[in-house]
Design goal:
The complex is a heterodimer of chains A (505) and B (359).
Chain A (H helix, E strand, L loop, with lengths): L3 E10 L2 E11 L4 E5 L6 H8 L7 E6 L2 E3 L4 H6 L2 E4 L11 H6 L15 H11 L14 H14 L4 E5 L7 H16 L3 E6 L2 H7 L2 E6 L2 E7 L5 H9 L17 E11 L5 E11 L3 E5 L6 H9 L6 E6 L2 E2 L5 H6 L2 E4 L3 H5 L6 H5 L10 E2 L2 E2 L1 H15 L15 H13 L5 E5 L7 H17 L2 E5 L3 H7 L2 E6 L2 E7 L5 H8 L10
Parallel strand pairs in A: 3-8, 3-9, 6-7, 7-8, 13-20, 13-21, 16-19, 19-20
Antiparallel strand pairs in A: 1-2, 1-4, 4-5, 9-10, 11-12, 11-14, 14-15, 17-18, 21-22
Chain B lengths: L2 H8 L13 H25 L4 H13 L2 H26 L7 H18 L4 H30 L3 H8 L1 H12 L22 E3 L2 E3 L2 H18 L1 H11 L1 H6 L4 H28 L10 H11 L4 H24 L6 H23 L4
Antiparallel strand pairs in B: 1-2
Helix pairs in contact in B: 2-15, 3-4, 3-14, 4-5, 4-9, 4-12, 4-13, 4-14, 5-6, 5-8, 5-12, 5-13, 6-7, 6-12, 9-10, 10-12, 13-14, 13-15
Amino acid sequence: MPHVELLGITKRFGSLLANNNVTLDVRPGEVHSILGENGAGKTTLMNILYGLYRPNSGRILLDGRPVSIASPHDAISLGIGMVHQHFMLVPTLTVAENFAIGQTSIFRRWSAREFEPKVLRAAEDIGLPIDPKAFVSDLSVGQQQRVEIVRALGRGARLLILDEPTAVLTPQEARELMGALRRLTSRGTSIVFISHKLKEVMEISDRISVLRLGAHVRTVGVKDTNERELALMMVGRQELETVRREAASVGPPVFMVRDLRVRDERGQEAVRGLSFDVHEGEILGVAGVAGNGQTELTEALVGLRSPVAGSVTVDGRELAGFRAGRMIRAGIGHVPEDRQVWGLFPDLSVAENLIADRHAEAPFGRNGFLQPRAIQSHADQMIQDFDIRPAGRSFRVGALSGGNKQKVVVARIFARRPRVLVINQPTRGLDVGATEYIRRRILGERSRGSAILLISADLDEVLALSDRVAIMYEGHFMAILPVEQASTERVGLLMAGVVPAAAPG
Amino acid sequence: MSGEQRETILVSQPVVVAPGGGRRLRGLLVPAAAVLGALAVNAVLLLALGVSPFTAYTSMVAGAIGSGQSVSDTLSKTVPIALIALGVGLTFRCGLWNAGGEGQFYAGATGAALAGILIDAPPVILIPLEVLAGVAAGCLTALVPAALKARYNTNEILVTLMLNFVPHLFALYIIQGPLSHGYAAKTVDIHAAGQLPWLVLGGLRLHAGLLFVAAATLGLSVLIERTTFGYRIRAIGSNVFAAEGAGIRVVRTQFVVFLIAGGLGGLSGMIQVAALHHNLLEGMSAGFGFTAIVAALLGRLQPFGVLAASLGFAALVVGGDSMQRTARIENSMVFVIEGLILLFLLGGRIIGRESARTS
């Protein structure tokens, strides 16, 4: 009898269908991997199992009995534990104290020391040593993850869900983790392993379920499949976009990057020696699952993060390490990944947003004073040009719809006619109409002769718009292909870290 | 820009941000509600203590605007509060939590008093010198948190709050030390040439500082809404990350804004010395620094709003003093009301932000 069954799980967030009637089961003592791209619904599904979300419809059975999981508390008491991508540990407390969270009562005095033997025992069980007296903030990321695992086990988890666990580990730590997981399953614990990395999934799993765009594609036994097949299932074949590219009239290379190395927040190298050129009038698309260095790459190219090594030139001028203002003046335009955080000023008006990077220059600013008439007429022009619909009474940009907000960002950047565009996730969270519009404008910039680097986790978007496609994985470009040679199978494999053995794409 | 420098901007976004421009009527709703809410809760407290809220409030109002003298007092009290509040409001608008108004006030007062006492010169020289001394002292006081923030991203709330003690205690040293009056807790008077007269207008005796207040209010209003520098301030206050991304020099702008606020705080102290006390006096500030913070928030960080709020608080203070004399109710009630207003304002803003989540 299966350990856990998810039957017909459907979950909506507003108009977004995150899980579409997903049915799958986990057998006792197996390692069951859930494979899929960003947005496939993997984490959402597991968050439902862990009680962080309630499904709109569907049932969950545990050991054959229907259960209702309304919160992580319920999940834990049913023996379900989860280790998220972003750890839920308190850095200023010790391991034993973190272990104690949620397991103590205010009616009884307790000390962390009671929990130390429990920590040691649980750690020993899986063969990953931990010091219960250590402060979490002093531990490495790999060690912190161990604490999360041990804590889940210490609470009696018989099913352990791990969300992209190796994303934060060194190769050595990843190997140790795999060993620990095998020890766990030999003792009867079931494991759900969420990942987009094909090699790992093939190595560790008993069965693999592939999700795509919220739906369950297929569940296969690891022995009955191979990487090629899985890649195809993950990436699939979509209906072609209505947006069509014309043939490119590509000019000389304008934007040249050599040996770029960038560190992330934690000090680890996220971009590992990247070199590429973007030509005038072409779009170089960067495909890849989010989290492989795309954010850090973007930030380094637009002046928001200093690279540790490498060169970035526009028309021969070296720009690496300079800050955003300099980059903008050198002709680099940035359409940010997260418009709310990087692109918009929610309390300012549309007109004021549209001139953010030019407010001090003529005609918008003269002798230190703003020129309201010039600003307004520019805004009127942009609003008409980009068909920006304001939000009723409020003039605040914060009140606009997502699509219109993105139009404001794009209008601001494109109005400068930049030589180079670094575009990251341009259509995230947008409806079909806005998506199509933004993509058309990007192609318009390409016709104008801008050199465009288009980073997107949406493979269809990349394939529809790009002239050449680079696939980013763990800080490298696995390959740079002309789009005609970028078949979904080939790209899917590369995105998951696998270099296709045989040639034909 | 390095990774470490990026950390600089990650921490400075405050919860409370002003809406842009004058969306008049809707903008009055939150402050009005905060004031009414505070008065209501305070009324409950009074009832619990066996005091009639009606008596308390009516005697306050009478005390604040009941007579020509009261109006004059209220307007006079507005000056120090408003000048500090305008500066503090500017820093809040730019994403900085500046709690150093009290210290900047005392620094400016001390600087101006020293100039007025030690320098003997005709008014046309002495008065500007006093202004210079006061503003400079205030700027210097603000320089410490501003520089620490710019270089190390230290938390300006803590630095300004704790730094408040230093100028205050230095002023006390001057008062008790070499320039002491001898009998009272104050220094000798500044030269007559350095004293600003009362303005007489329509039968009212008005504080000379009101001119400075008017100028500062207008000046800041123009600065914030019409200049490119003001644009940068508003942009940083709205979204510090996007400001960085648009090429705005956040650290530099915030540094300058901090100094401007320090200058205004210093000016506030200076004007009290030159126009009112004519010397440096112990207890010159009746909590002006704290009141200024609440006034800035109540005025939604907009110069004219801040001015109106400062007026309101001045009325509260003057009315409170009168209420203590006539109705025998402790005027510390005024601080309770101020605190409640602050709570309501912050609570209202946080709730407002949560419900306004958009894509």
